[in-house]
């Protein structure tokens, strides 16, 4: 395993030094954040601290062999994502050093700002109502690990998604507006407010998305962020996210750490940090079931299109793969784990298709970055689209149901945003 980890770190360093050194927030470098946890921090914690033991692979007798196999396959998928991204970049020969993030013209009117504030207000009001309906803030905070069950039980899950979507679109558009206007304190006030407020009902990923999105928008619109500063932010953020995860797990009784000495504290901290991304554990569990229990969803990818139909109309519509895997691997209903491209593609298409879909993920991710960031000089709000939708590029190749479930509501509200903005512009124009 040590040699494989060294190979990954070599590829990781190569991708930064020779592929995307100039832009720390390119599509591939954003994927690299997850890959760093998935192929370095978590495996190191499991192999060299926990001795190949994971609470998510408890049913595997020879866990060492399956973790080794998982790492080899995951490393191959990482390589093909890199190749896909590099192929597009080499074809167009674009250079981020030519990208200017400073000196954009200010907005001609405040309609975008007002529309964004309306969206944020609607999202806040909706979520406050849901928190009240769920029993109050204390009950929600004490049930973070079971928040899906908490909101599903009273049929409020759609409203939760609606509130999140309003906050995402309104939040990132308002942050973009403030950065364009050089109102930096206002931009970071919005970022921190959304981060703290979303922590009351969303997961760590949803909360952290506002910090990450704010950094991306600042980088592309206000001032380029260097790697040293980003690394410092990383060192501050990771322990915090790990602590939140440990607190959440302790509420659910699934905390795997028990420290009793100062010598163990460093190891415990690494274990806490590694739990931010458990994809390696889930992939190991899936590959074991795939190879030994014939766990497969072959032919079901296209059925994900049924997710656009309300369950009241079509009760047997397809679930997202994350929910199916949670049920088939661990017997847990109304829950979703976080599968990776490796397990999702293998489940739907087979192991032999993983390199192809990994390549496509990198290739089309590079196209998306090129269209909405590099070619955004005429409209800076296109960068907001990049911030909102970049995670869904790889999700499309993983699970159609998850992709549609995550994007349809966002796209619908995006159209609504521009309609409201048009009405506001028309109204203020008539007043003039």
Work out the radius of gyration: 22 Å
Supply the number of helical segments: 18
Q: What structural category arises from helix and sheet content?
A: mainly alpha
Distance between the termini: 69 Å
* Count of β-strands: 0
| Beta fraction | under 5%
Task: Give the overall average pLDDT.
Answer: 82
Spans where pLDDT lies below 50 across 5 or more residues: 253-264
- Please state the overall shape, judged from the principal axes of the Cα atoms: globular
Give the fraction of residues assigned to helices: 55-70%
Main beta sheet = none
Oligomeric state of this protein = single chain
The arrangement of helices and strands along the chain is HHHHHHHHHHHHHHHHHH
Detailed description of the structure:
- 38% of the residues are buried.
- The protein has helices at 2-19, 27-48, 63-92, 111-133, 137-141, 147-152, 157-180, 184-198, 204-222, 227-252, 262-274, 279-292, 321-330, 341-348, 354-374, 382-389, 391-398, 400-431.
- It is globular.
- The longest helix is centred in the C-terminal third of the chain and has 32 residues, at 400-431.
- The protein is mainly α and 432 residues long.
- Helix content is 70%, strand content 0%.
Descriptive labels:
mainly alpha; 432 residues; globular
Compact summary:
With 432 residues, the protein is mainly alpha-helical. The protein contains 18 helices and no strands. Helix 7 (157-180) packs antiparallel against helix 8 (184-198), helix 8 runs antiparallel to helix 9 (204-222) and helix 10 packs across helix 11 (262-274).
């Amino acid at each position: 395993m040590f040699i494989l980890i060294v190979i990954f770190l070599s590829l990781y360093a190569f991708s930064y030094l020779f592929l995307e050194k100039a832009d720390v927030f390119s599509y591939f470098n954003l994927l690299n954040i997850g890959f760093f946890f998935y192929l370095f921090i978590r495996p190191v914690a499991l192999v060299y601290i926990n001795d190949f033991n994971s609470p998510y692979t408890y049913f595997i007798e020879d866990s060492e062999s399956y973790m080794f196999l998982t790492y080899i396959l995951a490393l191959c998928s990482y390589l093909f994502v890199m190749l896909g991204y590099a192929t597009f970049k080499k074809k167009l020969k674009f250079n981020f050093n030519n990208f200017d993030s400073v000196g954009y013209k200010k907005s001609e009117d405040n309609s975008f700002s007002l529309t964004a504030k309306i969206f944020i207000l609607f999202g806040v009001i909706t979520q406050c109502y849901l928190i009240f309906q769920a029993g109050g803030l204390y009950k929600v905070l004490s049930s973070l690990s079971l928040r899906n069950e908490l909101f599903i039980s009273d049929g409020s899950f759609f409203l939760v998604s609606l509130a999140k979507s309003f906050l995402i679109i309104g939040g990132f558009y308002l942050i973009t507006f403030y950065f364009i206007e050089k109102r930096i304190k206002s931009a970071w006030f919005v970022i921190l407010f959304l981060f703290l407020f979303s922590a009351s009902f969303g997961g760590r990923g949803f909360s952290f998305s506002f910090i990450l999105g704010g950094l991306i928008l600042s980088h592309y619109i206000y001032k380029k962020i260097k790697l040293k500063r980003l690394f410092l932010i990383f060192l501050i953020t990771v322990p915090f996210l790990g602590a939140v995860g440990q607190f959440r797990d302790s509420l659910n009784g699934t905390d795997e750490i028990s420290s009793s000495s100062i010598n163990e504290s460093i190891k415990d901290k690494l274990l806490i940090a590694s739990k931010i991304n458990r994809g390696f554990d889930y992939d190991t569990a899936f590959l074991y079931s795939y190879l030994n229990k014939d766990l497969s969803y072959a032919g079901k990818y296209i059925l994900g299109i049924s997710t656009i139909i309300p369950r009241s109309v079509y009760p047997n519509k397809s679930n997202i793969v994350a929910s199916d895997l949670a049920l088939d691997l661990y017997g847990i209903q109304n829950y979703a784990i976080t599968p990776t491209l490796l397990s999702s593609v293998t489940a739907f298409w087979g192991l032999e298709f993983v390199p192809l879909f990994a390549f496509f993920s990198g290739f089309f991710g590079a196209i998306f970055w090129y269209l909405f960031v590099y070619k955004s000089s005429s409209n800076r709000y296109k960068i907001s689209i990049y911030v909102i939708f970049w995670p869904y590029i790889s999700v499309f190749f993983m699970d159609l149901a998850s992709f549609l479930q995550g994007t349809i509501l966002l796209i619908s509200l995006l159209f609504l945003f521009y309609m409201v903005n048009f009405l506001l512009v028309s109204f203020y124009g008539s007043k003039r």
